[in-house]
């Protein structure tokens, strides 16, 4: 059956091949070309799909390797976790036994304590405390009597002092009354003299006024005429001068317009030329950027691995730097509370809950106080400084130290760091010098506003108030205690100090200390301000760190204002053991608000803050970076070139935009200048005509002025005696009347003063009488108090003697009570130690149980990871197998296509068939029926058909041949 089927398949293939060859000359040429192109497109798509599968298979193998590694790692982690879990579980029973053992010991210690306390109670019950109570009562009564005598004596002394003061005031008042009465008598005498002078002068003035009235009207008429003529002449001269000035201005403006037109036209031409040049350069630079970006992409790939190594080295260097320098860390709770309540206080102060704010900030500040401790520096301990005479280098060092600490805290709140500034350092030094000069006692008076205002004025700043200073104080020769048990009692203003001075007495007297101690003081003072949980006060912290209390800043930009900061120190005779620290901050918020004179306060004279240099790690970092430099130098160069070109392109684009705007503006300006020139020419003509008209009026006005002036002078000359006499008498009489009025006012003022002094004297006499009465009463009271004091003293002596007698007769009982109290103290200490041991054992047991739970959770999670990795490996393996099948099919298809090519080449090599008539042919026996094909071709086709059939590709070969035709 198999042989028969094979033969049929061969015959069919042969027939198909022969039929295909026979139809060579019957296919349409255009259809053949279309089929050929379709075949090409199909092959292209198939190749792309196979390439995608190959790439996918490559990535899948990578993912498979990673999943297998993850699986092994998870298995290893699980084994380790199980080992750890077993180890911890083995300790649980021991730890539980320890808990029970320490609990038993604690119970026994408590039982022993109760027994001791019961015994002590019995002994205390036998002791008669009345003798001791009588002594305390007698002592209390004596203290009361002593205080009464002291208080009454003080009252007597005070009244006697007041009596002396009042006697002095009385004498002073009597002297003032006598002096004022003499002054009043003198004023009254002056009034009489002035009145007599007026009586003598008045008749003369009346006669002179009658003579003056006769000529008055005529004189005024002539004066008015002369004045009018003069004013008309001045007006004409002024109008002429104004017109001539206007003409000159118009001519200048005309000249300026000509210059403007010429200049604008030149600028317009230049800008048009520049615009054309920039528009030509832009495409060339854009092409260069494209080429450089391609090069940069290649360099970036090579640089990635080197950068990773450099990053690790840098991280190690950064960690080392952080571990060396002193830090000021704000706990997360502090940052959260500060931002929360700062936002509320700025947006809606009515909703500000002061109690809740204090609660949150108190807890956060206590935490901040505990975690921040000063780190000493051995080199600074060897550097001695004179606190009253710091060198410029030492001042700079402490300024850098303090501003760095402040900025650490500000940055953690997201606020802009302070800028260390030399002008601010001078201002701070001037403030300290003023405090020292005024010997300000800051402990009681706080800020010395006068000193701050003087220094602000000298340094070109707003001197209206204290706008700049936060004030701190530290105890010289002492350091804040870092004992954790003392933290809850910490007082940031000086109550929890311990001795920290290690130098000579001479150094102490002259306020010399080491730099490490000085920095320690600054650190502790800032720490006290930032975390002031003892006094629940954060105004200083808010002001220095820009939250909650920010009077120097705008609420819309809080925390981002530029501050020029500095610090200074001073020590004064008023408080010789107190270091006063001035923290100065000058805001640069609105120009002219704080800095009034930039020539005195230079906001640009700033000092960059440096960090600690750790040479060894720095060297390691540089060595790691050298590996990066091989590629980064290329990248830097390319980046620079790309940036330069992009900047140039951006600049060219901006230039093109600017030039276009300039050209439009210049065109508009040119047209405006041309129109202005036309208007000016018209105005010049009108002004010239006006000047000619005013000049023609000038001569007549001069003649009129001269005539009226001459006529007035002649009239005055004719009546000179009358006018002079009237004027002089009038002036004298007016002066006398003025003197009379002034004398009258002085008289009234003096009388009021006299009455005032008399009233004061009466009040003093009254008060003096009252004090005399009180003084007599107090002296009686003092005498009685002294008697009570003597009696109380006698009672105290008796009570003390009775108590001493009781103690001597009951010494054994008292010794037993003392011994029992000592036993109780020992038992209490034993309970305390047992409680500590029990708490420690309980914690260790709970920690172990918690560790077991965590390890069990970890094992469960690792089991899930293992299951996930296995599922992933299975999925990836299936994907790889499927892709292998696709590739095998593709290879088989390629083999078919290669065989088709060989067949087509063979067919092309055969001679083309020639049509012949059957009656003329000599070889009809070798031609297949109903074809004109050559027998060679037929034989080849049959063989080809058989070969294709043997491959199972008969139908494909037929299709392929049809496509080719």
Automatic annotation (TrEMBL):
Question: Superkingdom, according to UniProt?
Answer: Bacteria
Q: Where is this region: Disordered?
A: 73-106, 118-177, 225-255, 265-284
Per the database entry, which stretches of residues form a coiled coil?
614-662, 723-879
Q: Which Gene3D superfamilies match?
A: 1.10.287.1490, 6.10.250.3110, Nucleotidyltransferases domain 2
Per UniProt, residues of the Gram-positive cocci surface proteins LPxTG domain are 928-965
Q: Which UniProt keywords apply?
A: Cell wall, Coiled coil, Membrane, Peptidoglycan-anchor, Secreted, Signal, Transmembrane, Transmembrane helix
**PROSITE patterns xrefs:** GRAM_POS_ANCHORING
Name one matching Pfam family. Gram_pos_anchor
Q: Which region is the signal sequence? A: 1-31
Where in the sequence does UniProt note compositional bias of the Low complexity kind?
A: 153-166
Example of a GO cellular component annotation carried by this entry = cytoskeleton
Entry's transmembrane regions:
937-957
> Record keywords: Cytoplasm included?
no
**Bias category Polar residues: which stretches?**
81-93
Biased composition, Basic and acidic residues: where in the chain? 94-106, 134-151, 167-177, 266-283
Q: Which PANTHER family match?
A: CILIA AND FLAGELLA-ASSOCIATED PROTEIN 58, CILIA AND FLAGELLA-ASSOCIATED PROTEIN 58-RELATED
Q: What is this protein called?
A: SEC10/PgrA surface exclusion domain-containing protein
Q: Which organism is it from?
A: Lactobacillus johnsonii
